[in-house]
């Protein structure tokens, strides 16, 4: 009888393999970094006079500014 090979080496761990290309470009990262500095110093405003109080909102503003300037960013999720 032949010895049975263990199939555990072929089993998936459930994690997806990271893509080789960057998700966000350097330009997008620097744009978000600039916006985050504004947020931390209390200078970031949304729309008119309202100060941004949420970290998530600050990141979203940075990503949208990067998109407007033509930086490589993933597409928005469909609503």
Report what the structure shows:
- The chain is mainly α and 79 residues long.
- It has a domain at 25-72.
- Helix content is 37%, strand content 5%.
- It has helices spanning 26-40, 55-68, and strands at 45-46, 50-51.
- The chain has a two-stranded antiparallel sheet.
- Strand 1 and strand 2 (50-51) form a beta hairpin.
- Helix 1 packs across helix 2.
- The mean pLDDT is 84.
Quick structural summary:
Helices cover 37% and strands 5% of the residues. The protein is mainly alpha-helical.
Mean pLDDT: 84
How do the helices and strands follow one another from N- to C-terminus? HEEH
Q: Approximately how much beta-strand content do the residues carry? A: 5-15%
Rounded to the nearest angstrom, the distance between the terminal CA atoms is 58 Å
Biggest sheet strand line-up: 1-2
Structural class, from helix and strand content?
Answer: mainly alpha
List its salient traits.
2 strands; 79 residues; elongated; mainly alpha; two-stranded antiparallel sheet
Strand-helix topology:
Layout: H1 26-40, E1 45-46, E2 50-51, H2 55-68
Antiparallel strand pairs: 1-2
Helix pairs in contact: 1-2
């Amino acid at each position: 009888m032949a010895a049975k090979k263990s199939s555990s080496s072929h089993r998936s761990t459930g994690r997806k393999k990271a893509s080789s290309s960057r998700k966000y470009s350097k330009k997008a990262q620097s744009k978000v970094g600039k916006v985050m500095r504004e947020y931390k110093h209390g200078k970031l405003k949304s729309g008119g006079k309202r100060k941004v109080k949420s970290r998530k909102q600050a990141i979203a503003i940075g990503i949208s500014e990067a998109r407007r300037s033509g930086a490589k960013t993933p597409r928005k999720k469909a609503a």
